[in-house]
């Protein structure tokens, strides 16, 4: 059991510190928790709801106020409110619990929405609902990484989900026109990448409309570009699942 | 009364005139199932002691728990009064949610027992079921139930009870009367309309006004219920007694020496017995005398209750028992609960089953007496008249009327619903009780195994065998149980569907080949397709909505049990097995292809409660889908839809019905955990003209903007660099590689235009297809009719797009969106750019001047499509927005243009698509050679310049999309909500509460009018779909079921409030304060959608900084 007395311990409560280094000096301001992110996103418009006080410190927890000279040399102004706004906008901060939580939740839902948009249930050819995807993501214990883009994570999720539920990327409809010379040769190479051929027309040039897995688009694009030396053309109709 | 054997029933089934098909109808909790119990008990199927407590026909577990019936179930009973009768009784649910089950029951019957609670009188559902019986043309009889409550609960005197009963009878008759009058008036109106049309044809001027309205001419006396007609029974099913006037008339005619026919007439009504004159006199009420009914009937019952229940006077009871000549077991006499004694006495004195069944046999028609009117009604589907049916079909009417069980008569069967049965319940798979030897054998086996195991155990651990002796017996039992359980589990637990049906003509046999006709089957079509005199056994060409199948098995429905039959003659209610693949919900089965499908059941309640259903574990989706399909088949009223969004939507008639459907899904059909949630609600986004007045109805122009701070901040955040917005809302945007610039303006479309575009989606799609073919130098043949329609559509558009702003706009339409056929327009206002119009299919014949298509035309259109598919507010599609492209500059170096134009090859290579009619051959070769030329030159360029921003066409699409979005945001944006029109039928007394519910849910009343000839009001209102979840339930609860809404999607409506509104003017500041935290409906919807989609919601994580918990958790 440790003894602690209020006198020898200074504790800041409900304070989030935003720091910024400028002109070789460190400046800090004292803000309320869970408010700085709202200010940055524009949801909070009242500065007084964000700042505990508009004094600029060198060290908030020690209560050392920044010197006026340092401020004016670093920021070029003596208006404390203006300086505070600058620090708020550009300084670094410790993201507080609820901010992080809401951010992750939002990303989680965003990922689920992306997955739902991109995928279909192969049995019904209809998309899954977002809430179902969310539940499936929870089932496979997917954790959101805050520093990766949602789209990137969504693509990862799709791969993982395929092991637990029946899910498939919605097909992409492509139309390509290839010169006759390359047509035959290329067709053999393209065959494994294509899911279904909807329409094929081979007279002076090979014209094909087909469905492909969106993951193969890059490969097909590359293949056609290289093999035909730019003479083949590729056009995508739509990727949305309702066309499938 | 012993158990009636199966053979007996089979024999009785053949005597059509002695069959009665009837159902029991009533409001919820008026005692239908209890009454059915009494009737079932009379046949010895259940003990008469348990009658009224067991609720034999409520075979589902949740029915027993909730105490309400949820499905209609049938049972065949045997009744003897001189003649032997077979009574097919169908018990129906009374709860409003299950009124579809009532419809299925009523259809199969010839008569109905309407039960009314003596205390509660006529309730909403009573009216509904009376109407249903009326619509199906079946004859009702009345049972006034729960008379014991008048004595025990309300403590009425016999005199008061008499007046009370009279009132109830009047109420019931009033309902019947109003049904009758409305029918007569309707017929009258029809006749008038016909007369009028004939009048105008003949040109005769003089009209005769007839005020009598035909009511007097039509005789309605046989419709009404009256005890002296013998169609009313007074009963207390729970105590097991019931009587009709007949019984008492007979009784007293012997005692008093008055002719029973006289007594019959006078026993009910304003008559009294003059003891001195020994005469029955009229006018009991005016003379203050006891009416005959009270004196002779009610008083006896009252004194009985008094003696048995209230005072428990043993001597008096014994005296009564002996005087009535009854035998009561001493066990009952000594029983502490007086109710036991009471029912023991009553069930012998005035057995309810006797009263009801004799009334039924006398008053209700047999299947053979089916009226011609009813037959015609059954046979003529929808608005089709009977005369318009093919001749062979009309001949079938005779078969209906004959109702003969001959070999030659055509088989006609109607299936009103399918119900699921556990395979265990099927007679084929039923477990037979084990014989004594078998049991012994099994026990022996079990014992051996047990001994073996014990030996093994003992060898493992020798000590501690002291208590195994005691264990042995129980272990043995457990083993036996386990064995029987195992056999049960081994049975294939697949659901079987049994069709609930009735034979109208002929004899249905096992193994017979029959036609199954769906509800949409048309006999005239089939007759043409099929050879004359064919039967279901032949190989036939397929006809829509018709299938051939073999009757697998026939069942006699005995409540929860089924008995297998070999054949069912006409007029009987039966179950047919093995039909699940041919019948969805209802069907007609016949041996003759000329048989018409029966008129669809008229459901009183349409399904309105919508929920989205999902499995708890996503991997169980296929099971859910299968389960929902089964549910759809098993429930006549539930609907199952799969939305475009992938939601599985279940539509049910009400909350209780929903609960049952979910339980069914969980436990029977899908056998998985599921969750039901609010369905996804769609919205649309649009722009409007800048409003002239602010939120407090002040003129906008004159006031100064006070809240400049808000304004400035928003301006900064809204538009990133590279986007220029001028004051008129023109947005100019340049692609990242600085090659192209587009200028776009968003303009709201007039409402009529939006509606026009919505209505003509198909036409637009055809036009789009035409243009697509035109790109590729092919032609698409469109028939003349459609061309005319397109022309008309164009003219309408032109007439609606009037004014300076819209001059020539129709000709300049570039595309429709989203998905190329939506209610948004892309307008080509680029100076000096003429492109072929979307109307080119109309101008095929005309030689139009050549219009060129610029490179990347398609990219602009694609950008527009993407922008309209998901708007900036909450990524919902746009609606009623016109994007006008005002500038489009390209600063392309030639090779780059060509390199990228490869992507657009198919379009750009064929510039002269309009001239497709002339010399298409030569043209095509030209075009293709040109394209190959280009491709080659493009290929050379490809190596030289590679754009770091990706292909240029893609950049342009993105730029266009962004430009549209900013242009949209530059205008006042609004959300559009889907609206239901809602029709509510309500009685006058609950009108106020209906309004309260409507206004609470943002509904708006459009009109309210009284329904002719009734006291019902019809209210028409619109209600946002977003507010409709639980609406039907709330309105029913608040109005105690007297108002029932019908919701149908009608249109999209702009929500007038601005989701981004903040107070700006001085007036608004005064009124709303600086923060304006009063609720904003549009903002609420928008944020809900954004939150669902995981988009950024402009919301503070904590509202008040100071009001946070300041200490961290561990200190």
Automatic annotation (TrEMBL), chain A:
UniProt domain Ribosome maturation protein SDO1/SBDS C-terminal: residue ranges: 172-235
InterPro entries found in the cross-reference section: Ribosome_mat_SBDS_CS, Ribosome_mat_SBDS_N_sf, Sdo1/SBDS, Sdo1/SBDS-like, SDO1/SBDS_C, SDO1/SBDS_central, Sdo1/SBDS_central_sf, SDO1/SBDS_N
PROSITE patterns named among the record's database cross-references: UPF0023
Residue ranges constituting the Ribosome maturation protein SDO1/SBDS central domain according to the UniProt record: 109-170
Annotated compartments: Cytoplasm, Cytoskeleton, Spindle; Nucleus, Nucleolus; Nucleus, Nucleoplasm
A GO cellular component entry from the record: nucleoplasm
Entry-linked Gene3D superfamilies: 3.30.70.240, Ribosome maturation protein SBDS, N-terminal domain, SBDS protein C-terminal domain, subdomain 1
One GO biological process term: cytosolic ribosome assembly
Keywords, ordered alphabetically: Cytoplasm, Cytoskeleton, Nucleus, Ribosome biogenesis
Domain of life: Eukaryota
Annotated Ribosome maturation protein SDO1/SBDS N-terminal domain residues: 14-101
SUBUNIT field: Associates with the 60S ribosomal subunit.
Family annotation (NCBIfam families): RNA_SBDS (TIGR00291)
Family membership noted in the UniProt record: Belongs to the SDO1/SBDS family.
Record function comment: Required for the assembly of mature ribosomes and ribosome biogenesis. Together with EFL1, triggers the GTP-dependent release of EIF6 from 60S pre-ribosomes in the cytoplasm, thereby activating ribosomes for translation competence by allowing 80S ribosome assembly and facilitating EIF6 recycling to the nucleus, where it is required for 60S rRNA processing and nuclear export. Required for normal levels of protein synthesis. May play a role in cellular stress resistance. May play a role in cellular response to DNA damage. May play a role in cell proliferation.
Name assigned to this protein: Ribosome maturation protein SBDS
UniProtKB/TrEMBL annotation, chain B:
PANTHER family: ELONGATION FACTOR-LIKE GTPASE 1, TRANSLATION ELONGATION FACTOR-RELATED
Biased composition (Basic and acidic residues): 441-453
InterPro entries in UniProt: EFG_II, EFG_III/V, EFG_V-like, EFL1, P-loop_NTPase, Ribosomal_Su5_D2-typ_SF, Ribsml_uS5_D2-typ_fold_subgr, Small_GTP-bd
Low complexity composition bias: residue spans: 926-940
Location of the Tr-type G domain: 17-368
Biased composition regions of type Polar residues, renumbered to the chain: 908-919
Protein's UniProt name: Elongation factor-like 1
Single biological process term from Gene Ontology: cytosolic ribosome assembly
SUPFAM superfamilies: EF-G C-terminal domain-like, P-loop containing nucleoside triphosphate hydrolases, Ribosomal protein S5 domain 2-like, Translation proteins
GO cellular component: cytosol; ribonucleoprotein complex
PROSITE patterns, per the entry: G_TR_2
GO MF, one example: GTPase activity
Segments of this protein annotated with the region Disordered: 441-472, 897-940
Pfam families assigned: EFG_C (PF00679), EFG_III (PF14492), EFL1 (PF25118), GTP_EFTU (PF00009)
Keywords: GTP-binding, Hydrolase, Nucleotide-binding, Ribosome biogenesis
Domain of life, source organism: Eukaryota
């Amino acid at each position: 059991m440790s003894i602690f007395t209020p006198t020898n311990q200074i504790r800041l409560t409900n304070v989030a510190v935003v720091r910024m280094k400028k002109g070789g000096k460190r400046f800090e301001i004292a803000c309320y928790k869970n408010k700085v992110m709202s200010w940055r996103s524009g949801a909070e418009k009242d500065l007084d709801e964000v700042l505990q006080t508009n004094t600029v410190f060198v060290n908030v927890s020690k209560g050392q106020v920044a010197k006026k000279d340092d401020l004016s040399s670093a920021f070029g102004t003596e208006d404390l409110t203006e300086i505070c706004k600058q620090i708020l906008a550009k300084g670094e901060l410790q993201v507080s619990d609820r901010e992080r939580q809401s951010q992750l939740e939002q990303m989680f839902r965003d990922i689920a929405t992306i997955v739902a948009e991109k995928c279909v249930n192969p049995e019904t050819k209809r998309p899954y609902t977002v809430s179902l995807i969310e539940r499936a993501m929870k089932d496979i214990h997917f954790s959101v990484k805050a520093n990766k883009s949602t789209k990137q994570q969504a693509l990862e999720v799709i791969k993982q989900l395929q092991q637990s539920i029946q899910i498939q990327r919605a097909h992409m409809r492509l139309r390509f026109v290839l010169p006759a010379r390359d047509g035959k040769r290329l067709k053999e190479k393209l065959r494994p990448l294509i899911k279904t051929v909807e329409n094929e027309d081979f007279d002076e040039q090979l014209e094909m409309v087909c469905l492909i897995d969106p993951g193969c688009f890059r490969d097909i694009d590359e293949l056609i570009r290289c093999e035909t030396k730019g003479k083949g053309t590729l056009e995508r109709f739509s990727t949305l699942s309702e066309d499938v | 009364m012993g158990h009636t054997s199966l053979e007996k029933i089979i024999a009785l089934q053949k005597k059509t005139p002695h069959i009665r098909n009837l159902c029991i109808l009533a409001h919820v909790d008026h005692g239908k199932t209890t009454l059915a119990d009494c009737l079932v008990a009379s046949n010895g199927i259940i003990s008469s002691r348990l009658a009224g407590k067991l609720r034999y026909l409520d075979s589902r577990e949740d029915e027993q728990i909730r105490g309400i019936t949820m499905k209609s179930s049938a049972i065949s009973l045997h009744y003897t009064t001189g003649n032997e009768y077979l009574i097919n009784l169908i018990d129906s649910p009374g709860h409003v949610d299950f009124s579809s089950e009532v419809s299925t029951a009523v259809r199969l019957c010839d008569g109905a027992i309407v039960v009314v609670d003596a205390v509660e009188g006529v309730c909403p559902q009573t009216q509904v079921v009376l109407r249903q019986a009326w619509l199906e043309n079946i004859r009702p009889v009345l049972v006034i139930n729960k008379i014991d409550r008048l004595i025990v609960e309300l403590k009425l005197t016999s005199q008061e009870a008499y007046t009370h009963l009279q009132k109830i009878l009047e109420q019931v008759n009033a309902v019947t009367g109003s049904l009758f009058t409305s029918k007569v008036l309707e017929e009258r109106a029809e006749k008038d309309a016909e007369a009028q049309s004939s009048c105008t044809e003949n040109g005769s001027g003089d009209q005769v006004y007839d005020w009598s309205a035909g009511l007097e001419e039509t005789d309605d006396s046989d419709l009404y219920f009256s005890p002296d007609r013998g169609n009313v029974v007074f009963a207390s099913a729970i105590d097991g007694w019931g009587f009709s006037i007949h019984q008492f008339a007979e009784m007293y005619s012997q005692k008093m020496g008055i002719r029973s026919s006289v007594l019959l007439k006078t026993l009910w009504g304003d008559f009294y017995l003059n003891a001195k004159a020994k005469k029955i006199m009229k006018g009991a009420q005016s003379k203050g005398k006891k009416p005959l009914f009270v004196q002779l009937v009610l008083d006896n019952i009252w004194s009985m209750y008094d003696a048995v229940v209230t005072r428990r006077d043993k001597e008096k009871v014994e005296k009564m028992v002996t005087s009535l000549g009854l035998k009561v077991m001493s066990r009952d006499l000594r029983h502490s609960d007086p109710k036991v004694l009471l029912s023991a006495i009553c069930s012998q004195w005035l057995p309810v089953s006797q009263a009801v069944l004799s009334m039924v046999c006398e008053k209700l028609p047999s299947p053979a007496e089916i009226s011609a009117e009813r037959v015609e009604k059954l046979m003529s589907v929808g608005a089709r008249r009977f005369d318009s049916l093919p001749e062979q079909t009309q001949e079938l009417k005779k078969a209906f009327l004959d109702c003969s069980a001959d070999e030659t008569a055509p088989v006609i069967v109607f299936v009103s619903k399918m119900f699921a049965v556990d395979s265990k319940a099927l007679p084929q798979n039923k477990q037979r009780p084990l014989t004594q030897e078998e049991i012994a054998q099994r026990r022996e086996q079990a014992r051996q195994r047990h001994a073996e195991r014990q030996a093994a155990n003992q060898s493992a651990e020798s000590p501690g065998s002291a208590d195994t002796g005691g264990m042995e017996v129980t272990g043995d039992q457990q083993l036996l149980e386990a064995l029987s359980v195992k056999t049960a589990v081994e049975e294939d637990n697949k659901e079987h569907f049994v069709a609930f049906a009735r034979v109208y003509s002929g004899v249905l046999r096992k193994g017979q080949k029959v036609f199954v006709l769906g509800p949409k089957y048309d006999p005239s079509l089939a007759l043409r397709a099929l050879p004359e005199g064919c039967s279901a056994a032949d190989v036939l060409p397929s006809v829509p909505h018709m299938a051939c199948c073999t009757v697998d098995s026939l069942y006699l429905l005995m409540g929860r049990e089924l008995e297998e039959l070999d054949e069912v003659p006409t007029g009987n209610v039966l179950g047919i097995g093995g039909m699940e693949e041919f019948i969805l919900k209802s069907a007609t089965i016949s041996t003759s292809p000329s048989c018409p499908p029966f008129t669809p059941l008229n459901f009183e309640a349409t399904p309105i409660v919508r929920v989205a259903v999902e499995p708890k574990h996503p991997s169980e989706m296929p099971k859910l889908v299968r389960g929902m399909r089964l549910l759809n088949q098993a429930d006549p009223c539930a609907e199952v839809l799969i939305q475009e969004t992938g939601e599985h939507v279940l539509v049910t008639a009400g909350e209780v019905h929903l609960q049952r459907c979910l339980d069914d899904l969980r436990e029977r059909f899908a056998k998985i955990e599921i969750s039901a949630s609010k369905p996804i609600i769609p919205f649309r986004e649009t722009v409007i003209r800048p409003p002239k007045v602010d939120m407090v109805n002040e003129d906008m122009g004159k006031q100064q903007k006070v809240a400049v701070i808000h304004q400035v901040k928003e301006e900064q955040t809204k538009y990133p660099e590279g986007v220029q917005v001028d004051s008129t809302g023109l947005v100019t945007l340049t692609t990242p590689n600085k090659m192209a610039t587009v200028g776009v303006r968003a303009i709201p479309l007039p409402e009529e235009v939006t509606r026009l575009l919505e209505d003509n989606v198909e036409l637009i799609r055809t036009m789009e297809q035409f243009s697509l073919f035109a790109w590729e130098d092919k032609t698409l043949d469109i028939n003349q009719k459609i061309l005319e329609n397109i022309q008309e559509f164009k003219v309408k558009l032109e007439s609606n797009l009037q004014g300076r702003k819209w001059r020539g706009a129709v000709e300049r339409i570039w595309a429709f969106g989203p998905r190329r056929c939506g209610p948004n327009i892309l307008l080509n206002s680029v100076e000096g750019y003429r492109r072929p119009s979307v109307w080119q299919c109309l101008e095929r014949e005309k030689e139009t001047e050549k219009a060129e298509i610029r490179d990347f035309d398609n990219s602009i259109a694609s950008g527009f499509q993407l922008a309209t598919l998901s708007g900036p507010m909450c990524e919902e599609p746009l609606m009623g927005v016109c994007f006008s492209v005002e500038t489009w500059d390209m600063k392309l170096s030639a090779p780059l243009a060509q390199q990228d134009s490869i992507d657009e090859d198919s379009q750009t290579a064929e510039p002269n698509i309009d001239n497709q009619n002339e010399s298409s051959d030569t043209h095509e070769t030209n075009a293709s050679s040109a394209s190959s030329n280009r491709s080659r030159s493009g290929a050379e360029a490809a190596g030289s310049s590679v754009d770091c921003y990706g292909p240029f066409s893609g950049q342009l699409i993105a730029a266009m999309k962004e430009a549209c979005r900013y242009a949209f945001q530059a205008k006042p944006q609004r959300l559009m909500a889907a609206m239901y029109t809602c029709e509510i039928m309500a009685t006058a007394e609950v009108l106020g509460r209906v309004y309260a519910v409507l206004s609470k849910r943002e509904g708006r009343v459009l009109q309210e009018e009284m329904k002719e000839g009734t006291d019902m009001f019809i209210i028409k209102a619109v209600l946002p779909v977003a507010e409709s979840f639980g609406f039907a339930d709330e309105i029913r609860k608040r109005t105690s079921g007297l108002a029932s809404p019908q919701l149908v999607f009608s249109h999209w409506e702009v929500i007038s409030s601005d989701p981004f509104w903040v107070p700006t003017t001085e007036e608004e500041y005064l009124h709303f304060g600086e923060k304006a935290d009063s609720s904003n409906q549009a903002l609420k919807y928008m944020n809900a959608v954004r939150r669902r989609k995981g988009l950024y919601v402009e919301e503070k994580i904590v509202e008040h900084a100071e009001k946070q918990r300041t200490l961290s958790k561990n200190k």
